[in-house]
Design goal:
The protein has 269 residues and is an alpha/beta fold. It has a domain of 182 residues: Rossmann fold (3-Layer(aba) Sandwich). It is 36% helix and 24% strand. It is built from eleven helices and ten strands. The strands form two sheets. A six-stranded mixed sheet has the order 6-7-8-3-9-10, sandwiched between helices. A four-stranded antiparallel sheet has the order 2-1-4-5, with helices on one face. A hairpin with a 2-residue loop joins strand 9 and strand 10. The radius of gyration is 18 Å and the shape is globular. It binds adenosine-5'-triphosphate and magnesium ion. The site of magnesium ion (MG) has 4 residues, from helix 1.
Length: 269
């Protein structure tokens, strides 16, 4: 039996920010089912790759979504085709309530409110609470819930577990697993146990290029190869410490600060 066509195919994708090339000739495919994980050290171009697919940064190369070229389209057209994006920094309207955040996210006539209610009961219990006063984990769930309200054909989720307490990581992973049973997910994730639990395929990026692609288990079962490609053990829960090949400003401090803040807030409900 032939494999079904991929939902997303990227070929020779390059992108730059302020004239600096951050994605270089990237090729990968996202199967129409399950979770495909994008891995890589800090600052290697994972987020930029997602932004290039969405046309949020200037790009060249081929991007096919469900068999149609979308690389010439503006972002709003691409999103209308059914790509839901959960950005790295948990986009919620801080001054609005949980209920208002969800209502604003509704697009179609039949929002998936039932699934959201079922997946995030603790969040729904806080419907009247302002999103800015939620913990990091709850904001992440709200951010995911906003995207899940609509019928998307692909979800692109950028580091949803970053900086969260272990218990909340498990909850977010469970929600993603449920979502992925309905809609394919392209997931940027540094927590390798979460990758192992969710992803069937991994794409590893380094210096804006794909340096490895293949079954998730095959890579993560090979601790030496995992260390070689990612600089961490296959059982590690977060990003490697100590900077990047690019000397990106977003490094250790950026990651560790919200972690502490979130964890202390998770423990004081
Ligand atoms: N707004 C920006 N202005 C200038 N350079 C940027 C900007 N955003 C990203 N970059 C640079 O582009 C490169 C790739 O960054 P990107 O955010 O895509 O990496 P990443 O793999 O997602 O990193 P992280 O693991 O920290 O999330 C880095 O060198 C980064 O410094
Ligand atoms: Mg990123």
């Amino acid at each position: 039996m032939n494999a079904p066509d991929p939902i997303l195919r990227v070929a020779g994708l390059s992108a730059s920010i302020d004239g600096q090339q951050v994605v270089e000739q990237v090729d990968f495919e996202v199967p129409a089912t399950g979770v495909t994980a994008v891995l890589g050290r800090n600052g290697v171009g994972k987020t930029s790759t997602l932004k290039a697919v969405l046309g949020l940064i200037s790009r060249s190369g081929v991007v096919e979504f469900d068999g149609a070229r979308i690389d010439g389209e503006p972002t709003h057209r691409i999103v209308q085709r059914g790509i839901g994006y959960v950005p790295e920094d948990r986009e919620v309207f801080a001054s609005l309530t949980v209920a208002e955040n969800l209502r604003l996210a509704e697009r179609g006539t039949t929002p998936n409110r039932g699934m959201v209610d079922e997946l995030f009961p603790d969040l729904i219990a806080r419907s009247a609470q302002r999103a800015g006063s939620l913990s990091g984990g709850q904001q992440q769930m709200l951010s995911l819930a906003r995207v899940l309200m609509n019928d998307n054909r692909l979800l692109m989720v950028d580091e949803p577990t970053k900086g969260l307490a272990p218990r909340i990581v498990t909850e977010v992973a469970a929600a993603l697993e449920r979502a992925a049973a309905v809609t394919p997910v392209l997931l940027v994730e540094q927590n390798l146990p979460v990758v192992r639990r969710l992803a069937h395929t991994v794409v590893v990026i380094e210096g804006g290029r794909v340096i490895h692609a293949g079954p998730a288990a095959e890579l993560l079962d090979d601790d030496e190869r995992t260390q070689q490609l990612l600089g961490v053990h296959s059982t590690d829960h977060g990003a490697p410490r100590g900077g990047t090949d690019h000397g990106a400003p977003k490094g250790d401090t950026d990651r560790s600060a919200p972690t502490g803040a979130d964890e202390s807030r998770e423990e004081t409900p």
